[in-house]
Amino acid sequence: MIDPYGRNITYLRLSVTELCDLRCRYCMPAEGVCKKRHEDMLTEDEMVGAVRAAARLGITKVRVTGGEPLVKPNILSICRRVSHVPGIRETVLTTNALRLKDMAVQLREAGVKRVNISLDTLNPDKYAYITRRGRLEDALEGIRAALSAGFEKVKINAVLIGGFNDGEVPALAELTRAWPVDVRFIELMPMPGSEEFGAEAYMPCSEVPKKLPEAVPEDKHDGVARLYRLPGALGSVGLISPLSSHFCAECNRIRLTADGHLKPCLHSAEEISIRGLDEDGVLEAMKKAIAMKPRQHGALSAKEKSFSAREMNRVGG
Ligand code: SAM
Ligand code: SF4
User: Fold this and answer.
1) Could you write out the DSSP letters of every residue in 177-242?
2) How far apart are CA 149 and CA 19, in angstroms?
3) Would you say residue 37 has pLDDT above 90?
4) How many CB atoms lie within 10 A of CB 185?
5) Which partner for 117 in 97, 233, 253, 307 could form a disulfide, CB atoms 3.0-4.6 Å apart?
């Protein structure tokens, strides 16, 4: 479906849970989330019904996310059913990789084509610090499992945080020479819950190429990422800059939260509930959400916070 600003909306981000086995400092409060009642969250059937409605409106790509999608006990069934919805050509997943060691092959068999893996540092102590509890080796093991499971693409997403991992840009980019992976640097976004980060943490992606003198800009884009490549690399390095350069003009997505709310824009407080609606009702709600997509979100910076009413784990990043 085309939105009021001429953008073709073809991409749904489906959050399957708010829960997570990590507590990344920019995403989630230390104490985790207050566990909601089962009946307040969408069921598997409701999620799949929403994807069917989305496909009828022209959505062709679904990213399964969260929270951490792999803590959801029925995640394989959700992925399998989503990937079989007529019209859905790509089912992809974003994960912290901690559980990929045991699940990568099954996810691939369930129809997941590609995975994005979050990894902000290659230092075990820093990993434990930023995730408040994770073990770097578990994430690396998950990445290795993904690489041998036959996904069409494995991407590594690193949130760029000044004063934390800016010194690791070369080491993280180097992963594109060590493994057949793409690495994406993403600017830290001032979401609710990420108040502990000061102005210096909001570092523009334009700093990345300065730290990679060998990197050659590529002509093509990958979605909203500007691409570079290190000589001899197996994958690209990409920059995603929600703060320093809006990519709203190319925004082709809507989001569905695990508790059944459509979000026309990540950085707006506007939400439309689909709770209790049948598939035709969801389709109408989606039309409304797409019609409500703003031309662009407001400025974002250390001082100008996102208007999202939710932390990232409760949105579906
Ligand atoms: N748990 C999964 C993971 O970490 O990949 C999926 C959900 S997580 C919310 C999705 C993505 O959002 C991750 O890559 C994470 O780094 C990113 N994210 C969370 N909070 C963010 C923030 N404040 N700014 C930028 N990216 C953020
Ligand atoms: Fe969990 Fe992902 Fe948020 Fe980290 S970024 S706390 S792994 S949902």
Assistant:
1) HHSS-EEEEEE----TT-TT--GGG---TTHHHHT-TT-EEEEEEETTEEEEE-TT-SS-EEEE-T
2) 25
3) no
4) 28
5) 97
The 3-state DSSP class for residue 256 equals strand
CB of 65 closer than 6 angstroms to any ligand 1 atom? yes
Q: Is 80 exceeded by the pLDDT of residue 309?
A: no
CA of 68 to the centre of ligand 2 (A): 6
Q: What is the number of the ligand 1 atom nearest to the C-alpha of 316?
A: 9
Question: pLDDT at residue 245 above 80?
Answer: no
Structure tokens at 301: 């910076």
Ramachandran angles phi, psi of 201, nearest 5°: -75, -25
How many distinct helices (H) and strands (E) make up the chain?
9, 12
Q: Taking the model in full, what pTM does it have?
A: 0.97
Check pLDDT > 90 for residue 242.
no
Q: Which CATH architecture has domain 11-315?
A: Alpha-Beta Barrel (3.20)
Residue 251, both tokens:
């925004």
